[in-house]
Specification:
alpha+beta; 8-stranded antiparallel sheet; 26 helices; 23 strands; about 45% helix; about 15% strand; hydrolase; EC 3.4.14.-; serine-type aminopeptidase activity
Length: about 725
C-alpha cells in the first residue's frame, strides 16, 4: 500500500456548514473553527460559544469532569458538590453497604459535611487544557522518530504526553497528568492536561427502588421513571490542591459550578450535553458492522446471559450475596441488553444497507478523484474482516468467560516471587514472598467475592466456552478435565474450588506453614491460571497479527469520507474525551400507531408499581409524598411531578451522568440512557429515532429535599426559579 499522506484533517473536516441533524459529539476546541455557534443559536442557544469553552477564561467546561472510571459528573455548588447518575455511583454505594447498613436498599443522605463518607479509589478529573499536537506527530513521522502505524500506539503517545508535561508550566503541580490521543482515526492528535482529585466523598444516594427503578426491564427503554442520580463531593487540601484523603481536607472551592433551572422545559426547547462519551464506531464499513454483530455482540450476549442467570438466583436467595454482587450484576447486565438491542436495531434500522450505500458513493468519489488509496481501502478492510472474524469470536468468548465471568483462579503470577525464593532457598525472600501471597489471598477473597457463587458460575461457563470455540482455543486445563476427571466438568471444578491453595483459609494456612515448590506446581488453581493466561496471550498475538495495518486503512477511509462529505461536518468517533452535543427536547414515534411524549411523571411510577417484583417496588415515603402531592416548588404547572425527559442529543456510554443544559447553560437534568429503538446509534446515527433519556433536575431536587431530608444540599446550590 502506498504511504498515506499526512493531511491535516482541518482541510477536510473543519469546513463546516450548518448541519441538518443533531448528530455529532463535537470537540470543544474546534467549535469556533467549525462555526457551530450559528447552528446552536438557531436551535435556541442564548449564550456565547466562549461561555461554553474557552482556553483563556473559565467556562461551562470547567464545571464538568470524569467521575470515577467511566462516567461524567458536574459540579452543582461552589463547594465541589457533584451530581452524577445513581448507576455511576453504584460501586461507591455498594462499597459502603453491608447487611447492617444497606445503602443500596435504604439510600444514603448526609445531613452535614461530617457525615459525608470517604470513598477510597474514587476520583474526579477536570480537563485543564487542550493542545493540538497534530503537527508535532506528523513531523515525528516525517523525521523517522516514529512510524505512521506506531503513531497510534500507547508507547509513543505516552512519551509525547510525558515530554509535553516536562515542558509545561503545569509541571510539578499537584494532581496534573497528560494524555495524548488520536482523533479521526489518526488524522488529528490532541493533548489533554488533566487535574485529578482523589478525595471524593459520598453525599447522597436515593434507595435503589428510586435510583434503579425499572431495573433490567426498563433499561434502555422509554417511557422511563428512574431517579438515576447520586451526589458526591470533592475535597482538597487547604490550598485547593488535590490531595489523598485526610481529615484535614476541606470541600473544594471550585472555579465554576452549574446554576440549576426550575423553569421547566417544553417540546422543542434547546438542550445541550457536555460529557465524556466512551466509544462510537460511526466510520465502520458494512463488513465491520457484521463483525461487531457476530464477533462481539452475539458471544457477549450468550456468556453474560448464562452468568446472570446464576447470579439472579443467588442474589435473590441471600441479602449478603445481593449486596456483594449488585454492582457486578448491574455492570454485566447493562451491556448484555445493549448488545441485544444493538443487533436488533442494526437490522430494524437498515444499518447494513446504509453502510453499503455509503461505500457505493465512496467508490464513485474515489474514481472521480482518481485516488488509488481511496479506491482500494474498503476492499482491504473487507479482507481484514475475513481474517479476524473467527479470532474476534474466540477472544470475546474468552474474555467474557475468564476475565469478566469467572473470578477465581487469577493467582499464578502471585506465586512467581515465592517460587524463585524457594528455588534459591533464601529465607528472607521466602518470608517477603509469603507476605505478598497473603495480600493476594485477601484480594481474591475480598468482601465482594463469594466462593460458592463463583463455583456455580464456573460450572456454567467452563462447559459453555468449550462448546463455543474450536479445540485449539481451549486452555490446557481442558485436557486435565478430559484425562484426569474423565471429562466431568463438575468434578474438576469442585476439585479446583476445594483443594487449591487459594480455595479457603484452611488450605492457605497449611501451605504458608509449609510452602513447597511441589505444592505450587501441582496446584490446580495455579495450573488453571497459567493455562488461561497462556491461551490469552496466544489469542491476542494471533488477533494482533491478523489486524495488520488496519489502523492505517481506517485513517485513509476516514480522511476520504471527510473529503467526500465536505463541507458538511463529520465529528470524530468518541474516545472518552470531553465533547459537546446539542439538540432539542423532543417526543418520537417508534412504530406505527405509537407516540412517546417527551416527559414522564411520578404518576407513571405508581402505575408501574409491583410489590412482588424487586425492580418495581416503590418506597412507602415516596407513595406518601405522591398521595399528598407534597412536591414543593418542583411540580409542573398542572401539579404533577416530572421524572424524566427526552432530547435528541447524541450520546453514548461514558455520557452517563452528563449535565443536560438549556440555552442559558443552566442545568435541567442528567443524562442516563439511550432508547431501545436507536441502540445501533453508536454505529449509525438516526435523527428520527435517536433519543437521550435524562432524569429531570426537578425530580432530583424533590427526592433530595422531600424524601432525603437534605435541605442543606439544596441551600448550597444556585437555583433559578
Amino acid at each position: 500500500m502506498k504511504k498515506l499522506k499526512l493531511w491535516a484533517l482541518a482541510l477536510v473536516c473543519a469546513l463546516f456548514a450548518p448541519v441538518k441533524a443533531d448528530e455529532g459529539m463535537w470537540l470543544l476546541q474546534l467549535m469556533q473553527e467549525q462555526n457551530l455557534a450559528d447552528r446552536m443559536k438557531a436551535q435556541g442557544l442564548k449564550i456565547g460559544v466562549d461561555d461554553i469553552y474557552s482556553p483563556n477564561h473559565v467556562a461551562l467546561k470547567d464545571a464538568v469532569g470524569i467521575f470515577g472510571r467511566g462516567c461524567t459528573g458536574e459540579i452543582i455548588s461552589p463547594d465541589g458538590l457533584i451530581l452524577t447518575n445513581h448507576h455511576c455511583g453504584y460501586d461507591a454505594i455498594q462499597q459502603h453497604s453491608s447487611v447492617e447498613h444497606d445503602y443500596l436498599t435504604d439510600g444514603f443522605w448526609a445531613k452535614s459535611r461530617s457525615e459525608e463518607l470517604p470513598t477510597p479509589g474514587l476520583t474526579f478529573k477536570f480537563v485543564e487544557r487542550i493542545v493540538d499536537v497534530t503537527e508535532q506527530v506528523n513531523e515525528d513521522i516525517k523525521e523517522g522518530k516514529v512510524t505512521e502505524l506506531n503513531s497510534f500506539g500507547s508507547e509513543y503517545l505516552k512519551k509525547l504526553a510525558d515530554e509535553a508535561l516536562k515542558k509545561s508550566d503545569l509541571k510539578g503541580k499537584p494532581g496534573i497528568s497528560t494524555l495524548a490521543l488520536p482523533f479521526y482515526q489518526g488524522n488529528k492528535f490532541y493533548l489533554f492536561f488533566i487535574k485529578t482529585y482523589s478525595d471524593v466523598r459520598m453525599v447522597a444516594a436515593p434507595p435503589s427502588s428510586i435510583g434503579k427503578f425499572g431495573g433490567e426491564t426498563d433499561n434502555w427503554m422509554w417511557p422511563r421513571h428512574t431517579g438515576d442520580f447520586s451526589m458526591f463531593r470533592i475535597y482538597a487540601d487547604k490550598n485547593g490542591d488535590p490531595a489523598p484523603y485526610s481529615a484535614e481536607n476541606v470541600p473544594l472551592k471550585v472555579k465554576k459550578h452549574l446554576a440549576i433551572s426550575l423553569r421547566g422545559l417544553q417540546e422543542g426547547d434547546y438542550a445541550m450535553i457536555m460529557g465524556f462519551p466512551g466509544s462510537t464506531s460511526r466510520y465502520l464499513t458494512q463488513s465491520e458492522v457484521k463483525l461487531r454483530m457476530d464477533g462481539t455482540n452475539t458471544p457477549r450476549i450468550q456468556v453474560r446471559e448464562a452468568r446472570q442467570e446464576v447470579l439472579r438466583k443467588e442474589m435473590a436467595a441471600s441479602d449478603k450475596v445481593r449486596i456483594q454482587y449488585a454492582s457486578k450484576f448491574a455492570s454485566s447486565s447493562n451491556y448484555w441488553k445493549n448488545s441485544i438491542g444493538m443487533n436488533k436495531a442494526i437490522v430494524d434500522n437498515r444499518v447494513l444497507e446504509t453502510k453499503a450505500e455509503q461505500e457505493a458513493n465512496f467508490a464513485k468519489f474515489a474514481k472521480e478523484k482518481n485516488n488509488a488509496d481511496y479506491a482500494s481501502v474498503v476492499g482491504k478492510i473487507d479482507e481484514y474482516v475475513t481474517r479476524v472474524t473467527p479470532l474476534a469470536k474466540q477472544l470475546t468468548y474468552f474474555t467474557e468467560t475468564f476475565r469478566s465471568g469467572i473470578e477465581f483462579g487469577a493467582t499464578y503470577l502471585i506465586f512467581d516471587n515465592l517460587k524463585t525464593a524457594l528455588e534459591k532457598n533464601k529465607k528472607k525472600d521466602i518470608e517477603k514472598a509469603l507476605e505478598q501471597l497473603k495480600e493476594g489471598y485477601a484480594n481474591v477473597h475480598n468482601k465482594d467475592y463469594d466462593h460458592e457463587v463463583d463455583r456455580k458460575v464456573a460450572k456454567v461457563l467452563i462447559p459453555l466456552y468449550a462448546k463455543s470455540v474450536p479445540a485449539d482455543a481451549l486452555p490446557a486445563f481442558y485436557e486435565t478435565i478430559k484425562t484426569k476427571f474423565n471429562g466431568d466438568y463438575n468434578a474438576y471444578i469442585d476439585a479446583l474450588y476445594d483443594t487449591s491453595i487459594f480455595s479457603n483459609q484452611k488450605n492457605f494456612d497449611a501451605f504458608v506453614a509449609n510452602p513447597t515448590l511441589e505444592a505450587i506446581n501441582t496446584d490446580l488453581a495455579v495450573q488453571y491460571s497459567t493455562a488461561k493466561n497462556e491461551m490469552m496471550k496466544k489469542l491476542y498475538e494471533a488477533y494482533d497479527k491478523a489486524c495488520g495495518d488496519i489502523d492505517l486503512l481506517h485513517k485513509t477511509y476516514v480522511r476520504g469520507l471527510c473529503e467526500m462529505y465536505a463541507p458538511t461536518p463529520k465529528a470524530p468517533d468518541a474516545n472518552f474525551t470531553i465533547r459537546l452535543t446539542y439538540g432539542n427536547v423532543k417526543s418520537y414515534d417508534p412504530k406505527d400507531g405509537v407516540h412517546y411524549k417527551y416527559y414522564t411523571t411520578l404518576k407513571g411510577v405508581m402505575e408501574k408499581e409491583d410489590p412482588n417484583n424487586p425492580e418495581f417496588v416503590v418506597p412507602a415515603k415516596l407513595k406518601e409524598l405522591y398521595a399528598t402531592k407534597n412536591y414543593g416548588r418542583y411540580a409542573l404547572p398542572n401539579g404533577e411531578m416530572p421524572t424524566c425527559f427526552l432530547t435528541t442529543n447524541d450520546i453514548t456510554g461514558g455520557n452517563s451522568g452528563s449535565p443536560v443544559m438549556n440555552g442559558n447553560g443552566e442545568l435541567i437534568g442528567a443524562a442516563f440512557d439511550g432508547n431501545w429503538e436507536s441502540l445501533s446509534g453508536d454505529i449509525n446515527f438516526d435523527n428520527n429515532l435517536q433519543r437521550c433519556i435524562a432524569v429531570d433536575i426537578r425530580y432530583v431536587l424533590f427526592i433530595v429535599e422531600k424524601l432525603g431530608g437534605c435541605k442543606n444540599l439544596i441551600d448550597e446550590m444556585t437555583i433559578v426559579e
